Amino acid sequence: MTTGAMTPYRSQASSGHERFWHLLHAEFTKFRTVRGWVITMIIAILATSAFVFLSSRAQCSAGGSACPPPPAGPGGEPVADAFYFAHQPLTGNGTITVQLTSLTGEFQNQNANGQSVMEPEGPQPWSKAGIIIKENTSQGSAYAAMMVTGSHGVRMQWNYVNDTPGLTGSVSASSPRWLRLVRTGDTIAGYDSADGTHWTLAGTATLPGLPATVQGGLFAASPNDSTSAITLATGVFRHVGLSWPATGWTGTNVGGTISVNGVGVPGSLRQSGGALTVSGSGDISPLAGNFSVLTVQTALFGSFAAMIALIVVGVMFITAEYRRGMIRVSLTASPRRGRLLAAKAIVIGAVSFVTGMIAAALAIAVGTRVLGKGGLPLSPVPALTEVRMIVGTGALLAVAAVLALAIGTILKRSAAAVTTVIAATFIPFLLAILPPSPLGLREWLLRITPAAAFSVQQAQPQYSQVIASYTPNGGYYPLAGWAGLAVECAWAAVALTLASYLLRRRDA
After folding, report:
1. Which tens digits make up the pLDDT trace of 272-287?
2. pTM recorded for the entire structure
3. Residue (of 9, 14, 12, 22) closest to 333 by Cα position
4. Nearest CA among 309, 506, 314 for reference residue 407
5. Which run of H or E residues covers position 349?
6. Beta-carbon neighbour count of residue 159 at 10 Å?
7. Element (DSSP H or E) covering residue 490
8. Residue 364: is its pLDDT beyond 70?
9. Cα–Cα distance between 174 and 16 in angstroms, integer?
10. How many CB atoms sit inside 10 A of residue 22's CB?
């Protein structure tokens, strides 16, 4: 008896890639067939947008009156533009050069008789005196300026949001600062010097559409101090040189002399012994960090509620199987337990990402139309920033859901897992916005905990020249957006690694 050649056995099972795809499909089917989870996703989207209407109730005063709109800068952003300006018309190209020998400060106080008086004090850190070329004397008009500041040396600033440093150190009669502005068409170059001979280019500003005739001259400004007291800056100028025919100085309190935009006392110009002394209050800067304006970041406040909902779903996506005993069926169908956990993470992450992006896009679309009606002005946000906020919010919620899935796998108990993830995310955030917490602690909490990921929703940049409290209360975070999201991703990765190890090691 002879035997024929035997055909080798070939498994009819599909490749590993195909099996994993089927596993993903099975896990997605589990998710979409649980009506409560799908409804929760819809609620998360609606809740995010609903909070926009609550935020729009912000008013300028307790009485609910609308705020007077602040001036808008060339980019449309709300700005502070209040200072004393001693100016002359400049037609065409021209150069202005000065020597600044002193910068002093005063603050408004009450004497023993209850009268308001100005008392000497050191200049505020961002008090400023210098030279400026400005489109006109209207608030919000384009400008470029070279200035000496109270504590930040020489700066060149233009169009409110731009700032670049020059010479460091304080100014005095023995250590003066020479400043120069050169206009060539729409371009203004700023220079500084310690001796009036050797000049260094501080920066160049392009001001599109600058008219032929502008105003050039000397200025002084000083923002309110930390107690909101009105302050005054005084600069002493010598060797004032103009390349155009002088017509005499005209003094203007840009923004007025009442207590609006930081102006509470009239500025002044005095000429004596070859020196020009200019005093002024107010500030020239973007409005940011002081709750005087809103951004579309406010519209995303409802993402906190959405995150809680997605954390609950993320935990339930695994603990529901433990509770009902279905985990044994799942592990039998997919013996490679790490692949099962990976499939669940991809499904819950993808569904949460799409949910988060839809919620953020809808909230921002609604917010841009609703928030400005509450009384506070709405600061514009660049389109790319909005894209980052929308995609980032989706990623923020997706990673939170994956973290919840991992903690649910580790603890196998819904209540304990939900509590753990919410506490790890929201308690650091709450501690960071509570004033009694030290500022250093607040910053570290938002650097090393999952709450760091909220930085991906930040709408406004931090301006070095703005006196403000850059904390989460005002929508600012110590890490850049994607860096903060990376911190949350690291927590999720560690939790998933531990969850995968425990899922392999222990019985279902």
Report:
1. 888 999 999 999 998 8
2. 0.80
3. 22
4. 314
5. helix 337-370
6. 21
7. helix 481-505
8. yes
9. 79
10. 14
